[in-house]
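Example 3.2
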Amino acid sequence: MFLLYDYNIFWAFLIISSLIPILAFLISGILAPISKGPEKLSSYESGIEPMGDAWLQFRIRYYMFALVFVVFDVETVFLYPWAIGFDILGISVFIEALIFVLILIVGSVYAWRKGALEWS
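Structure, written as tokens:
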């Protein structure tokens, strides 16, 4: 039977987890000292005055490497719930997970052949 009050704990966690960051930003905005001057508005990095232009171009390969890493890292996280419930899920879920892993392998071979995993 579907009862709405079974979700009260969910709504409580949702409201509390939404209010904590909002309150943190509001309190820090109220309590933080506001002093804007030339020193505050200047660029500063590790105690050294900046020289030259702040614009640097990075090669797209760094971004591609990071993107490939994030995609495969996030996708492998989906295997953990499957591994925990493997004994009760049955053979059909095992076949689905096997297909999922094969898709990941095909994707990494494709990225490797395209050169997305090489630094030079």
